[in-house]
Amino acid sequence: MVNRVIGWVLVAVPALVALGGPLVPGDISSTSLPSAPPGAGHPLGTDVLGRDALAVVLSGGLSVVGITLAALLLAYAMGVPLGLVAAGRGRWLDEVLMRLLDLVLAFPSLLVLMVLAATGHRSAVVLVCAVAVVQLPAIARLVRAAALAPGCRTAAEALLLQGEPWWRIQAGYVVRSVAGPVVTDAGTRLGLVLYLLASANFLGLGLPSSAPDWAVVIERNRDALTTQPAVVLVPAALLIALCVGVNLLSDKALAHRRRS
Fold it and tell me: Per CATH, is 61-211 categorized as 3.30.70.580?
C-alpha cells in the first residue's frame, strides 16, 4: 500500500507539472544574464540562455512526456505483434523475423540518431519513429521469449490441437501470458527512452536547442551544473520521479495480478 501511494505521488507530480505548467503565465524569453543565481523575479535563477528557470521548467514537461509516451506506444505496437507472430507461425518465419531484427539490433542507437541528424531529418515525428525502431528488436525478442516459455507453449499447442486458429490463440491466451514481462519491461524502458531523447536533442534531432523541453534543458545546461544547479536538477528530478513512479506502479500491478 505504501509503495503504491509513493508511486502515484511520484507519477502525479511530474505529470501535473507537465500538464498544468504551460497554463501558468510565465515569460520564457531571454530577459536576464545567463546562468544567474536565484534572485528577485527568478526563484530558480536563469538558464544558459538567460531565461527564467522556473518558467522553463513549467513549460517544458509536456513535450518530453508526450514524445516519450508516443515512442514507447509505437515501439510496443510494433514489437508485441512481431514477437507473437515469430512465436506462433513456425520456425522459418521465426528465423526470418529474428534475423531481420538482429540487423537493426546491430546498429548502436546513438549511431542511428547521429545518421538521422547528419542527413537533416530533424523533427519530432522522425525522432519518435527513430526511437521506436531502435527499441523494436529488444521488445520483439522479449515477447517471443515469453510466448515460447514452456507453460505458455504447452497451453498454446493444446489449444491449436483443439482447432483454435493461431491468431486467436496468440491474441487471446498468449498475449495475456506475456503481459507481465511487457509491463515490467515498459517501466524500465521508459528511462532508456528518456536518455535517448536527451541525446537526440543534444545532437539537434527533434526539438530545437532553444526549446524549453526538460531533456533539452538538461543537456543544454549541464556545463552550468556547478554554478546554477537548479536548472539541471529540477527537471532531472521530475524525470527521475516519473521513471521511479512508473516502475513502482508496474511492480504493484504485477504483484496484484499474481495474487488474483
Answer: no
